Amino acid sequence: MQNHDNQAQVAYILKGFPRTSETFITNEIHLLETLGLKLSIFSIKQLEGQKHHAVVDQIKAPVTYLPQADDLTGRSFWVWLSENLPKFTASHGRLFRKRPIAYLGALLECFSMSIKYRESWLDFPRTVFIKEFLQAGTISEAVLQNPTIRHLHAHFCHGATTVSMFASRISGLPFSFTAHAKDIYLKELNPGDLLQIKMRRAKFAVTCTGANQQHLDACKGSEIAVHRIYHGLDTDLFVPEPREQSAADAVPTILSVGRLVEKKGFDYLVRACAILRDRGIKFNCRIVGGADKYAQVIKQLIADLDLQDLVSLPGAVTQEELRGIYQQGDVFALPCLVVDNGDRDGIPNVLVEAMAMEMPVISTDISGIPELIQDQVNGLLVPEKNAAAMADAIERLLKDQALRQRLGQAARQTVCRDFNSRHTTVALKNLFDACLAGEMVEAHVYCAEHS
Question: Which residue ranges does the record assign to the Glycosyl transferase family domain (predicted)?
């Protein structure tokens, strides 16, 4: 990859690009570019079958897709290595000749990590680090060929950040990362003290909620600045149209949006729908989002509760299609929960989107959600894993149009004031500018404080 523009730039290292469920990343990249930051994108995976958001076409940054390494799961490592090593051999050979000491140091650390972070002393080395080292080598060679790239930034602090850390050690470039949800809380994604090592070496860390910031501050073990910068939303893009007065006999729509994964709590929404049906409440419910392995649980529950005529699963849509869907909904419900393994959402972006569209929202009082929703002020909060409480809140909103309107208007005011991406992205741009200029990054200077 050659770039003849002399302006310093940041390399974004992502697991996959563009990913339908990660509009917050594509929007962030686009807004950073509009603010004047030069970027290059490295995508570890080349995604197929993903819906395409319009903002992707506006991104100018070149995208480099790494050689596609096969999945390690359920395979002999030696067979995997024999099939995949040739994809990386040439770039690693050139890299070794160019920076032998740095290369060998990173390679030795890779081997050390694969042994250190085994589940037990009797287990085979943790080979995922070898895969990530191979991927880091491809990125290292590319950034060394492009002297305008002076900083590496990864989204999610497990795999992509491990790759960035290796690439940083080989290339000598500083790195930073944005942490989100399960990448923080699931220990198997950062076993042992790996997260602390990443935080110690990173120039800075960003996370999207105050709850995450407190968690990272508590476990960092270093002086790294952890910045809370909300993802934000383009409030000029998500603008509600005037809602017409519903006819007295109109059937209201309960809307929810998100990947069909356990932490979204959709099974509790489905159970809440069964409670509402049994109370004689008229409604239909649409759960819009891409299928995941948990989707079958939701589908089976809908069938078991005989809700096929009331609850539908339309599948994933683009951000442009979603705006129209929000306009059609009467109540937005997202019963997020903390999974037994610790996985949870931060502040779901769909809640911010729904609130920007003046929808009255109901969610749970976990993680960063209370940073967005004030109960009875701009939405309703209920306890997690409580279908009856969710049903009560939905029924209350369906029966009180004035409350829906008041909460919806307050919801948009909150988003425009505290979650406007044009403000939050400036804070992130300032961090990158400081790094590119070789300045120290101080948390109290650059942390976005809009709440």
Answer: 247-413
Contact 61, 39 (CB under 8 A): yes
Does 378 lie in the same domain as 276? yes
The total of structural domains in the chain comes to 2
Residues 183 and 40 grouped into a single domain = yes
d(CA 426, CA 219): 27
CA atoms of 180 and 183, how far apart (whole Å): 6
The verdict on 72 and 199 lying in the same domain is yes
Contact present, 451 and 418 (Cβ < 8 Å):
yes
Per-residue pLDDT of the chain (451 residues; tens, 9 = 90+): 444 457 899 999 999 998 877 888 998 999 999 999 999 999 999 877 666 678 888 999 999 999 999 999 888 999 999 999 999 999 999 999 999 999 999 999 999 999 999 988 888 899 999 999 999 999 999 999 999 999 999 999 999 999 999 999 999 999 999 999 889 999 899 999 999 999 999 999 999 999 999 989 888 766 788 999 998 888 888 999 887 666 667 899 999 999 999 999 999 999 999 999 999 999 999 999 988 889 999 999 999 999 999 999 998 888 788 889 999 999 999 999 999 998 999 999 999 999 999 999 999 999 999 999 999 999 999 999 999 999 999 999 999 999 999 999 999 999 999 999 888 899 999 999 999 988 655 443 333 333 3
Residue with tokens 């069938």: 303
Which pair of structure tokens corresponds to residue 353? 């989107």
Q: 346: domain range? A: 253-418
CA dihedral (266, 271, 275, 276) in degrees, to 10, reads: 30
Shared domain for 282 and 413, answered yes or no, is: yes
